[in-house]
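Q: Could you fold this chain for me?
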Amino acid sequence: MGATTVGVGLFAPDVAAAAVTRPSHQRGPVVAYVSDVSTGEVLVMAGEREIKVLDPLLAARLVRAAGSGR
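A: Sure. Below is the predicted structure, expressed as C-alpha cells.
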C-alpha cells in the first residue's frame, strides 16, 4: 500500500464540511490513524488505499476525541 499526501488544511472550513457531508462511493470502514500530532500527519485507510493527510487541526481533534473516550 502506498501513501498519497493531501493538504486538507488549505480548504476553508465550510468547503471541508461540505466535502464531508456529501455521499461517497466508499463502502466499508474508513480508519484514521494519527501518526504524528506535532506535524498533523494522519493516515487514512479506506479499502485497499492508504492516504497521508497533513492537517494539524484534524490530528488534534482526533487525539482529543480519543482522550475523552468518545
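A (continued): Strands lie at 3-6, 30-36, 41-46, 49-54.
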